[in-house]
């Protein structure tokens, strides 16, 4: 193992040592520069002078590191890895986190005199030069570990700055093709390949100069850093094939272990691979070889057969010595023959250097190279169960200037900057949302057999949950399978679009909001001081004009009639009821008293724009009921604003960001601000709770767990449906529809639900989990002034024709119901009764009017008359069935006197009804205790 106390005291320990070399050393140095057979002393002196003048300071940049996305485990509070983004899969480790046997394997095979030389292995260089001077294909390298470290540092410097090169004209301007796209002269992949080629080519004048510069840097490096630091730096920067960089990632990638736990056989394999990693890599069954042009070929010996060109003499010798069997030899050599040859070489060097025992050597030599590949977890496709949330976070990083001025800068930071991104994802909510999506929202592959509906287009569904008090996005679920593969773009089962987002974050244009957009008319209504219990004419009729101070008033010049869902004729009612029933004509009646421009401004204040980022457009009647294409994210946040007492919090998907050392970095700025007055928000919440109550349009989504919830349903033709609901803590928007804007989702059933109705069980399931994880409280009480009942005068319509009475009552703002025929003294067919009667009543009261049958007579007042006169008067009024009623003893009454009637005076009853006359008399018979008089018929 390396000796930590060794120092750079070799013959080339510094520049002074090099200058003082003998003439032979001068020839050696010059030989790296001048490809001549004979070198004069003058040439040697010039070479040394050139060496002196080369730069000696090598700045070692930060390693290119993967960026990590994390979610917080609610049970432990600890971060859990969702996925990584990387160009180079690298996990840097400290010196003592690498097994000593790995250091021994690398040094024995690559630089056995590492701890003796000062950056350049003079003996190894001389040997390589002499060997290479003989010609042939069996050339030898001579770079020390320090030189190899320098080479890797220089390659990475080049890769860090590598960018796509675009073709330019004589003026230096970028050339565009016929589509307007910039013409690529050299792709970034080609630039990266050139970085490697330039740093490793040792032929020609440039190559020799590069080699000399590499030596100069290596010597200076050893004067600045310890041997262990340089060795560790090399272990962390070196490539082990493909995107695998650094020993820790190599150990995980190829053997599913850590650098600290590598065995002798594994360490020797990795040490053998590093010389030509893409030739010897073992993560592919074929044992891939990457060519310089980027193509891949394969080289694997057939089962049980050893390549003729493979030098497996070491195994033959072990067979001859009886230490292994012939079968063990073939087993060890099978599969990765060229890599096995390299491993055996490393093992032999370790044995010769006394780093391993003979027993360890035999055990490792006979071991068949057995990969246990653990590929890097990279890209959102590996964030299983939260792919679309991951993609949203990725889009935030790629589009927010907090992470760089240009998109290319931000892309580089994500892939190479070693960010630790701690997201707002709540695994509990996410798991429920995705599970509900899977259960109720089929992908195209799960559509019922024989069904092409919804067609044309692509069926989609999504949900997004946001913490109302902070704007933290807790979950994003979607029904499609995530893929960024362009080849799958036409497959309706796959998508890279985040339906919950917009064009900037999610690459989605949004969807027609439907009746969820009525929220903004409700808020504007309240802001103008109107009550939710004010009475309006919400019946189906032609609305002629809407005020619009932004774009000019809208006039219905064609007398278009916009109907209600399900053929509802509408009614005279209040915004409270309109909201519960989601009545289009009711909201038109509200907007008729408002300004469309103000409604638009409410939506803007509450964070709602079109999916393309532009302000919503309020140009006509249809705009009120949600023709604007908006994102589910925006609508969830708008309803969260109501639940949060009018405070709007910008959505945020990132809690914090650190670098690879744990230092806090800037994150996107997100703020909360009061955009709606608290009393307005509280009153809107009061009205919106009716939507989720029994009989409300969204009642099927109510979780039924006693948590107060508000919300709104939304439908746009047969294409799109919504359910947005919120507790005081969390708001969830669920959207279901046709992504491409066509087709009918009302005719296909899946798992017991039509597709336009699956919004309800999805929203319900999510809300139950939300309510458990984030217990909600009662919403603030509504404003008395904004909920006051409007008292109006109810006219008397008795005796009017039924039609005339109905028209007059509706014009006054009442809903009219027709009751059954009643006994009345009004003309037959006219209004014989109304309930309630004329007088002051609450606005919007339902009035029942009953037609008269013409048979009613009003009972006259006969009190004080003699009993006989009273009965005579009743008969004269038209009653044919008159009799004595109750007698009350009164000593002062000499003759029986009428005291009242039953039915009472003024009551209108049928002429054939029985009328009794109550009276008082000195003697009622039966001992004066009161009773019925005899009467005389």
UniProtKB/TrEMBL annotation:
Task: State the SUPFAM superfamilies in the record.
Answer: beta-lactamase/transpeptidase-like, Lysozyme-like
Record has Transferase as a keyword: yes
Stored PROSITE patterns: PASTA
> Keyword set for this entry?
Carboxypeptidase, Glycosyltransferase, Hydrolase, Multifunctional enzyme, Protease, Transferase
Ranges for domain PASTA come to 788-853, 856-921
Catalyses which reaction? [GlcNAc-(1->4)-Mur2Ac(oyl-L-Ala-gamma-D-Glu-L-Lys-D-Ala-D-Ala)](n)-di-trans,octa-cis-undecaprenyl diphosphate + beta-D-GlcNAc-(1->4)-Mur2Ac(oyl-L-Ala-gamma-D-Glu-L-Lys-D-Ala-D-Ala)-di-trans,octa-cis-undecaprenyl diphosphate = [GlcNAc-(1->4)-Mur2Ac(oyl-L-Ala-gamma-D-Glu-L-Lys-D-Ala-D-Ala)](n+1)-di-trans,octa-cis-undecaprenyl diphosphate + di-trans,octa-cis-undecaprenyl diphosphate + H(+); Preferential cleavage: (Ac)2-L-Lys-D-Ala-|-D-Ala. Also transpeptidation of peptidyl-alanyl moieties that are N-acyl substituents of D-alanine
Q: What InterPro entries has UniProt attached to this entry?
A: Beta-lactam/transpept-like, Glyco_trans_51, Glycosyltr_51/Transpeptidase, Lysozyme-like_dom_sf, PASTA_dom, PBP_transglycosylase, PCN-bd_Tpept
Q: Where is the signal peptide?
A: none
- Annotated membrane-spanning segments are none
The cross-references to SMART domains, in alphabetical order and at most eight, read:
PASTA
Which protein, by its recorded name, is this?
Transglycosylase domain-containing protein
């Amino acid at each position: 193992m390396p000796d930590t106390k060794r120092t750079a005291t070799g013959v080339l320990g510094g520049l002074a040592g090099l200058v003082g070399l003998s003439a032979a050393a001068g020839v050696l140095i010059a030989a790296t520069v001048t490809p001549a057979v004979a070198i004069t002393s003058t040439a040697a002196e010039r070479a040394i002078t050139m060496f002196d003048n080369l730069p000696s300071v090598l700045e070692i940049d930060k390693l290119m590191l993967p960026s990590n996305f994390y979610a917080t485990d609610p049970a432990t509070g600890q971060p859990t890895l969702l996925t990584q983004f990387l160009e180079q899969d690298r996990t840097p480790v400290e010196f003592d986190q690498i097994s000593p046997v790995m250091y021994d394997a690398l040094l024995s095979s690559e630089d056995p005199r590492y701890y003796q030389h000062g950056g350049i292995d003079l003996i190894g260089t001389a040997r390589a030069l002499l060997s290479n001077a003989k010609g042939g294909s069996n050339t030898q390298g001579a770079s020390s570990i320090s030189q190899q470290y320098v080479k890797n540092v220089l390659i990475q410097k080049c890769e860090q700055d590598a960018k796509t090169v675009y073709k330019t004209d004589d003026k230096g301007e970028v050339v565009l093709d016929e589509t307007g796209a910039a013409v690529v002269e050299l792709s970034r992949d080609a630039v990266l390949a050139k970085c490697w080629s330039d740093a490793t080519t040792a032929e020609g004048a440039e190559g020799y100069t590069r080699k000399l510069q590499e030596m100069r840097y290596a010597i200076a490096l050893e004067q600045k850093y310890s041997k262990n630091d340089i060795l560790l730096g090399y272990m962390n920067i070196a490539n082990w094939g493909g995107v695998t960089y650094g020993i820790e990632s190599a150990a995980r990638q190829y053997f599913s272990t850590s650098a600290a736990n590598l065995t002798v056989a594994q360490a020797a394999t990795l040490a053998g691979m590093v010389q030509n990693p893409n030739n010897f890599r073992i993560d592919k069954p074929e044992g891939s070889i990457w060519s310089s042009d980027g193509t891949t070929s394969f080289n694997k010996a057939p089962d049980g057969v050893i390549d003729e060109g493979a030098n497996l003499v070491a195994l033959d010798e072990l067979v001859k010595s009886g230490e292994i069997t012939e079968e063990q030899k073939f087993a060890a050599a099978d599969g990765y023959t060229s890599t096995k040859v390299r491993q055996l070489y490393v093992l032999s060097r370790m044995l010769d250097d006394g780093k391993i025992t003979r027993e360890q050597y035999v055990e490792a030599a006979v071991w068949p190279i057995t990969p246990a590949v653990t590929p890097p977890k990279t890209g959102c496709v590996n964030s299983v169960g939260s792919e679309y949330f991951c993609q949203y976070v990725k889009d935030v990083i790629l589009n927010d200037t907090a992470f760089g001025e240009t998109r290319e800068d931000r892309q580089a930071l994500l892939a190479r900057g070693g960010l630790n991104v701690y997201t707002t994802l709540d695994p509990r909510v996410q798991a429920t949302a995705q599970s509900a999506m899977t259960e109720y929202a089929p992908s195209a592959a799960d559509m019922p057999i024989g069904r092409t509906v919804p067609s044309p287009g692509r069926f989609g569904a999504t949900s997004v949950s946001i913490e109302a008090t902070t704007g933290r996005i807790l979950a994003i679920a979607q029904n499609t399978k995530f893929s960024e593969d362009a080849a799958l773009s036409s497959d309706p089962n796959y998508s890279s679009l985040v339906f919950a987002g917009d064009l900037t974050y999610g690459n989605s244009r949004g969807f027609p909001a439907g009746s969820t957009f009525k929220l903004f008319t409700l808020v504007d209504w309240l802001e103008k001081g109107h009550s939710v219990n004010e009475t309006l004419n919400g019946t189906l009729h032609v609305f002629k004009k809407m005020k619009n101070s932004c774009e000019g008033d809208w006039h219905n010049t064609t007398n278009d009639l916009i109907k209600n869902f399900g053929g509802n004729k509408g009614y005279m009612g209040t915004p409270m009821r309109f909201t519960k029933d989601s009545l289009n004509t009711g909201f038109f009646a509200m907007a008729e008293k408002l300004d469309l421009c103000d409604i638009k401004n409410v939506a803007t204040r509450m964070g709602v724009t079109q999916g393309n980022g532009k302000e919503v457009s309020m140009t006509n009647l249809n705009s009120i009921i949600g023709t604007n294409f908006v994102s589910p994210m925006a609508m969830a946040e708008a309803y969260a604003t109501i639940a949060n007492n009018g405070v709007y919090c910008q959505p945020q998907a990132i809690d914090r960001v650190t670098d690879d050392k744990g230092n806090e970095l800037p994150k996107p700025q997100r703020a909360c601000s009061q955009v709606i007055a608290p009393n307005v928000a509280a009153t809107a919440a009061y009205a919106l709770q009716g939507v989720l109550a029994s009989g409300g349009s969204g009642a099927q989504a109510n979780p039924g767990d006693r948590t107060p919830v508000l919300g709104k349903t939304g439908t746009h033709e047969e294409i799109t449906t919504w359910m947005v609901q919120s507790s005081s803590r969390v708001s969830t928007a669920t959207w279901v529809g046709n992504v491409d804007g066509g087709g009918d989702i009302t005719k296909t059933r899946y798992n017991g639900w039509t597709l336009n109705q699956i919004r309800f069980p999805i929203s319900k399931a999510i809300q139950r989990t939300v309510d458990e994880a984030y217990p909600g409280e009662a919403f603030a009480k509504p404003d008395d002034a904004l909920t006051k009942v409007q008292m109006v005068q109810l006219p008397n319509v008795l005796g009017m024709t039924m039609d005339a009475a109905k028209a007059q009552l509706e014009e006054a703002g009442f809903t009219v119901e027709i009751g059954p025929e009643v006994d009345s003294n009004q003309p037959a067919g006219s209004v014989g009764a109304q309930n309630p009667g004329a007088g002051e009543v609450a606005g919007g009261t339902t009035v029942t009017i009953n037609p008269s049958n013409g048979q009613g007579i009003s009972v006259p007042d006969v009190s004080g008359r003699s009993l006989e006169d009273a009965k005579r008067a009743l008969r004269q009024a038209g009653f044919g069935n008159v009799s004595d009623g109750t007698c009350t003893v009164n000593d002062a009454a000499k003759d029986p006197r009428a005291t009242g009637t039953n039915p009472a005076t003024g009551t209108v009853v049928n002429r054939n009804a029985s009328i009794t006359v109550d009276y008082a008399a000195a003697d009622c018979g039966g001992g004066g205790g009161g009773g019925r008089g005899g009467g005389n018929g």
